[in-house]
Amino acid sequence: MIQAVIFDLDGVLVTTDDSHYEAWKQMADEEGIYFDRDINQRLRGVSRMESLEIILERAEKAYTEEEKTALATRKNNYYVALIKKLTPSALLPGALDTVNALKKQGIKVAIGSSSKNAPTILKQVGIADLFDAVADGNQIKRSKPAPDVFLLAAELMDMPPAVCLVVEDADAGVESGLNAGMTVLAVGAAAGNQKAHLRADTLSDIDLAAYIRSQK
Ligand code: B16
Ligand code: MG
Questions:
Q1: Beta pairing partners, 6
Q2: Dmax (CA) of the chain
Q3: For every one of its 216 residues, what pLDDT tens digit does the chain have, with 9 covering 90 and above?
Q4: What is the number of the ligand 1 atom nearest to the C-alpha of 170?
Q5: How many CA atoms within 13 Å lie on the side-chain side of 150?
Q6: Residues with catalytic annotation?
């Protein structure tokens, strides 16, 4: 029986994936590193430094650890400038309705995001106070597909993993939810992931609250 839902943030509740692309693209162009939207797909749900390693696969020179930190910081500065402009219009279809419907029927709700910018994003789009718990990239060492961020979210809600359902848009995140022993709903870019228990194009294409009621 599902008693709690843990939402990934980028690509599930908000449309920040494009801002990630633009910020990485600006940094990569400045460095003369080839980067496109296909490579960007591989960065979904993956931490900042791991994302950089994927981008550097196409670099023509080797970077020192210090230089890598500087590149990641530069990208993050571009990204933060973009997300500071976010408004509630960045919420994805069905996101707010789903969270509110779940809360109304007594289901706990949490965030489980790899992003260290999650608190800023939640504030910008006006949903920071909606959640019972927020677990993000600031609090974990191992990012998705490790189960850590979702296990932390469950712990913060005082819920065993078996009663939690994860909503994810990244294959790495689907893997993470499964590794945590949770039920997984794959949406957006991961909607075709056959390992997930449930699939939907967007949160407005599935009545998650009704699904959970039907499982009782
Ligand atoms: P930051 P999620 C993830 O967020 C993004 O999908 C991924 O593209 C990004 O690299 C990662 O956060 C780290 O973000 O640089 O802001 O710490 O999908 O897990 O909510
Ligand atoms: Mg995501």
A1: 110, 166
A2: 57
A3: 999 999 999 999 999 989 999 999 999 999 999 999 999 999 998 999 999 999 999 999 999 999 999 999 999 999 999 999 999 999 999 999 999 999 999 999 999 999 999 999 999 999 999 999 999 999 999 999 999 999 999 999 999 999 999 999 999 999 999 999 999 999 999 999 999 999 999 999 999 999 999 997
A4: 18
A5: 32
A6: 8, 10
**Proximal ligand: closest to the CA of 113:** 1
The two three-digit tokens of residue 32, written as one number? 């003369």
Nearest CA to ligand 1 atom 3: 45
Task: Tell me which residues have their CB closer than 6 angstroms to ligand 1.
Answer: 8-11, 20, 43-48, 51, 76, 113-117, 137, 170
Superfamily for domain range 17-83: Putative phosphatase; domain 2 (1.10.150.240)
Domain ranges of the chain: 4-15+88-214, 17-83
CATH architecture of 4-15+88-214: 3-Layer(aba) Sandwich (3.40)
